[in-house]
Amino acid sequence: MNVIVNVILAVQMLAALVMIGLILIQHGKGADMGAAFGSGSSGSLFGASGSANFLSRSTGVLAAVFFVSTLALAYFGNARPASSGSVLEAPAAVAPAAATPDAAVAPAVPASGAAQIPTK
């Protein structure tokens, strides 16, 4: 179970990093307007309009992989035995008593919180 969670976590991190890179590579909507007036070149490695389709589709696929891995991690993170109960229902942990001679004379802790308020 732990190996599966680690593999899904690695896939999620790789998808996130590659998706960030692909988003940074893409041109904005105003980039075509600048190329129409002569600033910059509109051609690229994928052709004039091929890069938008390739980068958009690969970003969409990586986003889907990221969301599926997030849902899988949430499912495995919440998968607990049904008999575990709530953390609030568990008894409080008791600290071990110090082995000092004054331990027998230590004052008892008051039962309510109102008795702990100092008075003048």
Automatic annotation (TrEMBL):
Q: Which UniProt keywords apply?
A: Cell membrane, Membrane, Protein transport, Translocation, Transmembrane, Transmembrane helix, Transport
Domain of life the protein comes from: Bacteria
Q: What Pfam family does this protein match (any one)? A: SecG
Localization per record: Cell membrane
Q: Which InterPro entries match?
A: SecG
Which sequence ranges are marked TM in the entry? 7-25, 54-76
Question: In terms of one coarse class, where is the protein primarily found?
Answer: membrane
- Recorded GO terms, molecular function? protein-transporting ATPase activity
Query: Could you tell me the membrane topology recorded for this protein?
Result: Multi-pass membrane protein
| Gene Ontology cellular component terms for the protein in this record | plasma membrane
Q: Which GO terms describe its biological process?
A: intracellular protein transmembrane transport; protein secretion; protein transport by the Sec complex
Stated family: Belongs to the SecG family.
Its biological purpose: Involved in protein export. Participates in an early event of protein translocation.
Protein name per UniProt: Protein-export membrane protein SecG
